[in-house]
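Input chain follows. Return structure tokens only.
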Amino acid sequence: MASSNYKLQSSISSFIFTLCLLLLQFQAGNSELQLNYYSQSCPKAEEIIKQEVTNLYNKHGNTAVSWIRNLFHDCIVQGCDASLLLEAVDGVESEKASDRSFGMRNFKYVNTIKEALEKECPLTVSCADVVTLSARDGIVMLGGPRIEMKTGRRDSKESHAIEVDESIPNHNDSISLVLSRFQSIGIDVEGTVALLGAHSVGRVHCVNLVHRLYPTVDPTLDPDYAEYLKGRCPTPIPDPKEVQYSRFDHETPMILDNMYYKNVLNHKGLLIIDQQLSSDPETLPLVEKMASDNGYFYEQFSRAAILMSENNPLTGDQGEIRKDCRYANAS
């Protein structure tokens, strides 16, 4: 009897030990993301980021658009780990060098935010959380909704440049491919249509537009709008180094709102993927609903932005907390 009790107690102890290990492994994943993660280690962190984002917006309004794009480009490639920000070192290519990153800018100001954090709390706040929280605060600066986002991410030690082209949809890709790519990271059709609403702010370089204008105008474009775009992009072979562009929305160009969907319905979507939203039977009803209800757009955009921001983060003892967002600490 004593032997049986001993074996039972031993089995129970072994089970509890295994369960504890599983719990620790689970906690090393997404479960460590939480609201106000830095409340003890760096209480002023979120306020510092908000203040820096505000200061930068007042000096360079387009930084707020950059923060939103950074979130998408970082999180969709292997997860939210600030790998996007790494410079090329020792022959390792930077994600920023990819064609998919063409036109992205203001990376230097990420370090402005990071430097302010380092003065307050050295090696505490990750660059991955700077990417997330700057996007959150940038959305507000652009008139969008305040979105509560969790923190606790850690930074990748390596670039994922080799995976960028496969991970980030091209503006010429079909709507079905784009929907599939977002679905692979847990964002449904409704969320994808909402995230594309970020195209209500920012601009597109003529390099990515001229194929819809020359040698003949894309028949899905509104003719008057096409003439306007030709004025912005007067040559079929624009210089990629020149500042030649058109804003996604020239009516409310710096406000994150549902004007994007109204433009799409009026055949004024800049990119092919924008215009396809109104021709696909699965996305058209959502475009119509978001065009008529800005509150609904904000609701779905907020939900999808949270899902994006929590895609496969590094947490626990994974990765590191970079001192300089451009380089892994070992560099």
